[in-house]
Amino acid sequence: MSLNNFHFIHTIKNSPAVFRRRFKKDKTKSMSHGDPLFKVHYVGMEKIYSLQVEQTTEVVSRLVGKEPAGKASKDHALVVRPRYLEVKEISTGRQITKTYLHDIAYCTADKSHTSVFLYICKSKGQLQCRVFLCNKAEKAKAITVCLAKSFQTAFNQWHQTYGDRAMPVPSSATDSGSEKQDIPCSRSGSWVDGESELSRSLESDEEAEARMHREFLQRASSFHAPDRLDTGYHDVEDLTTDSSVQELVGGEQEGD
Q1: What is the per-residue pLDDT across 20-36, written as a single tens digit (0 to 9) for each?
Q2: Most distant CA pair in the chain: distance in Å?
Q3: What is the pTM of this model?
Q4: Closest CA to 38 of 92, 66, 77, 9
Q5: What string of DSSP letters covers the chain?
Q6: Long-range contacts of 231-235 (CB under 8 A, 24+ apart)
Q7: pLDDT digits (tens, 9 = 90+) for 143-191
Q8: Distance of alpha carbon 235 from alpha carbon 246, whole angstroms
Q9: 3 pLDDT tier (thresholds 50, 70, 90)
Q10: What are phi and psi of 164, to 5 degrees?
Q11: What is the pLDDT of residues 192-212, one digit of tens each?
């Protein structure tokens, strides 16, 4: 290799654009810790009052309608952990929201806005609908499958460990649960920039474990298939037969 070619390649490798891409890849990898990670745009959250599809449709239309037209940005990382789901800003690593799997009642890829993924969770005694824009419909479906399977695994592990047996509940554990995990809302109920959850006192592992037991115990006695998360119009088994969806279920690779 000539000296000129060597200097040319060295310059390219150290160019600001290449450095930024490499830095972003490394940052994303450090966020996942080996768990499924999906690059999305967190549109926002609104409070809802039932699990009726009509309500989620209205929320999605309202929130997505405020977004600028064009390709969805991928400025947030949605990471599916064994016991919870968290959303972080990719640029800063700031945690925006954290939701325990046992607080999630519903998740799906929206039928009308096919590139939208949403889930409904319980917080502060209320239901909240959180909406995410994906750059393609297959990703929204893949997140649905990934979250549903993670929920199923978490429930089955709990059932194998405890079954229908009661577990001692710490006196400090209350039903407020994930209310310490949520960012303040605007008057309209939509999510706006707020303080990071990292600056708040979080629910202890012991409290979360005790509340998970109560939630799953209630679910086991109330649902015909308690380990199956409601995924709306989509059947998880049907979604997994789509190869373009299946290849994304484990999360995105660094270069995606």
Answers
A1: 444 445 567 788 899 99
A2: 74
A3: 0.78
A4: 77
A5: --HHHHHHHHHHHTSHHHHHHHHHHHHHHHHHTTS-EEEEEEEEEEEESS--HHHHHHHHHHHHHTSPSSSPP--EEEEE-SSEEEEEETTT--EEEEEEGGGEEEEEE-SSSTTEEEEEEEETTEEEEEEEE-SSHHHHHHHHHHHHHHHHHHHHHHHHHTTT------TT--TTGGGGG---B-TTS-B-----GGGSPPPPHHHHHHHHHHHHHHHHHH-SSTTPPB-TT--HHHHHT-HHHHTTTT---TT-
A6: 231/106, 231/107, 231/108, 231/144, 231/148, 232/53, 232/106, 232/107, 232/108, 232/111, 233/108, 233/111, 234/108, 234/109, 234/141, 234/144
A7: 999 999 999 999 999 999 886 565 555 544 444 434 333 333 333 334 3
A8: 13
A9: low
A10: -100, 10
A11: 333 333 433 467 888 888 999
Task: State both tokens at 34.
Answer: 């080996």
The residue behind tokens 């419909």 is 137
In one-letter notation, the amino acid at residue 242 is D
